[in-house]
Amino acid sequence: MKMKLFILILCTLIQGCSKLDDYMLGKDNTPKPKELKQVKDKIKVDQNWSVAAGKASKNKEYLRLKPVVSRGVIYSADASGLVQAINKHNGEIKWSTAINHGLVSGPAVAGGYIAVGTNNASLVVLNQNNGKKLWQKKVTGEILSPPTILGKKVIVKTIDGRVYAFNTADGKQVWMAEHGSPSLILKASSSPVAMGNMILIGFSDGKLDAFDQQTGRVMWQRSIAYASGPSDVERLVDIDADPIVENNVVYLASYQGYIGALSLVDGQFIWKKPGSVYKNMILIGNNLYVTDSHDVVWSIDKRNGQVNWKQTSLKARGLTEPALIKKDLVVGDKTGYLHFIDAQTGEIIARSKVSGGISISPSVTGRKLYVLTDNGMLNQLSVS
User: What is the model's pTM?
Assistant: First the structure.
């Protein structure tokens, strides 16, 4: 398992595994990013405060550790195992809890609880108000995607294709379902998404399953992408972006597969187009915004799959998934730049830099951005 994950990390890092053999032989074939063109800022970006929210990351893994903003508090989790509650206005730390193991996903915050996944295949749940650990449960594999808290249940998907439901209050297992997993997968994963009495979950074999929330029974299953190609790497079709559900339509994407809209009425695709995505998408109005695995940012019409625009000047910069701040998009990159993009035209309208690489998408409330950098600093920026 360790060797499998190591290879997958390399695949993600080099943004294209066709030259994996060269990389293993010591040749750095990472694509070189284009030199950034100077941008005349059309919006003003100010950096307000910065606070230590963990230790510097020692590796280049893609981890789902995006901070959550709730009721004036930012909840952050870092790879070293530190979970913190921070005042969103001034950066003051309200409480801090150290987990005994490193973290790979979370935090999920809801109903007075915080849930995180550890690198020793455990689910940890804390009290939202004071950070006290309430319970910890061992599962069969790492929880690479943030847990989903649904009332009295917390739902998690493990790297080996199992889905668990635990009682949120005491950690008792309610049910477990087994989907399975291919021998080679990306070290990334999509989270369970609630829809009515169902939970939608994408898996690493390109399938989307709908589970009954109460029992864990599989209600239906759809194949979204099909593995093809002579090598295991070419056959990767993981669904790693969270499905987005709106009006009986689910929007989803897979790695080396498709971006598409699936009708939940008849189970048929409304549209789909080739694409390779492993980071979350966002849906705003009629537009689906996507950062693909080659660091191209897309705007796609959700109704028919037509491409509105694509921004290609940021290739190989290690972009985050997009976030929306007012009417504009923002993506971070591995060198510490934030790139602001006009959501209507795809034009880059401003750029700002923080002191550390950005692997996690900014969290946004109003005109404020909260950016957790690879060196463990949480930054607040404002846009005007």
Answer: 0.89
